[in-house]
Design a protein that fits this description.
Layout (H helix, E strand, L loop, with lengths): L13 E6 L4 E2 L5 E2 L6 H12 L3 E6 L11 E4 L3 H11 L5 E4 L6 E3 L18 E3 L3 H7 L5 E8 L3 H12 L3 E6 L11 E2 L1 E5 L4 E3 L3 E2 H17 L2
Parallel strand pairs: 1-4, 1-6, 4-5, 6-9, 9-10
Antiparallel strand pairs: 2-3, 7-8, 10-12, 11-14, 12-13
The structure holds cytidine-5'-triphosphate and calcium ion.
């Protein structure tokens, strides 16, 4: 009758997805951030939920509607995302780290608005923790998926991230490529497995890309 049966290939799996940018406050008015809109992460959360997973989405600020049936934790800064992710980590089977976490935050956070003066303003930034690196070090049975946003040497840098962060799968996208990256409705990603397989997906909607990534995770996680 053409009835759609829900797919349940992730039922019983706890999946943690991170999405969106983080914001690093300079003062009560201003922040440093990036162009992430959260679309890819939200698509992954919705796709995993529709396939039966228990999904926890930890997200930076976005304009997107909360995906139905998903547990959501809203954070602002990288440090807040760090705490939320580390807290959830022991209970999860799969982590998909789509978020574009700010690598640096302003060293000083002014309590009052910074007023303009003549001449230059110098900002001093300090490193944020690398959340995914920490997950890789503390890994027990979790299947860890990282994203790599690059503008050049896509595969090389993605492979380095896989090694350094002890990942099981890296999803690399060239954010400078037409039809890929920040904000658009489509993406073009290359998946790199721990065994060295390189799988380039065609341009697809972010939801289709999400399902293809989940297909790959299911295959690899089952055969570990
Ligand atoms: N990541 C993270 N915590 C950070 C920075 C990045 O968890 N402080 C995660 C991202 O969520 C992503 C992966 O690490 O899954 C790669 O992020 P990316 O910015 O591409 O790489 P970096 O390791 O930060 O290296 P660089 O920005 O210098 O290329
Ligand atoms: Ca980075």
């Amino acid at each position: 009758l053409g009835l759609v049966h829900p797919k349940t290939d992730f039922s019983g799996k706890n999946i943690l997805v991170t999405a969106g940018p983080t914001r690093e406050a300079l003062d009560p008015i201003r922040f440093l951030s990036n162009h992430s809109t959260g679309k890819m992460g939200y698509a992954l959360a919705a796709a995993a939920q529709s396939r039966g997973a228990d999904v926890h989405l930890v997200t930076g600020p976005t304009c997107l509607a909360d995906p139905a049936g998903v547990k959501i934790t809203k954070v602002v800064s990288a440090l807040e995302m760090h705490d939320a992710v580390l807290k959830a980590y022991p209970q999860v089977d799969i982590v998909i780290k789509t978020a574009a976490v700010a690598d640096y935050r302003p060293k000083e956070q002014a309590a009052q608005k910074i007023k303009k003066k003549a001449g230059e303003l110098t900002l001093v930034l300090e490193r944020n923790p690398d959340i995914l690196w920490e997950l890789g070090q503390a890994k027990k049975n979790q299947f860890l998926v990282g994203f790599a946003a690059e503008t050049d040497n896509l595969i090389g840098y993605a492979q380095e991230k896989m090694r350094e962060k002890n990942l099981d799968l890296v999803v690399a996208n060239n954010v400078a490529e037409e039809g890929a990256g920040f904000g658009g409705t489509t993406n073009i990603v290359t998946m790199i497995t721990r065994a060295g397989q390189i799988i380039k997906l065609p341009q697809m909607t972010k939801l289709e890309t999400a399902h293809a990534i989940l297909d790959q995770i299911r295959m690899l996680a089952n055969y570990r």
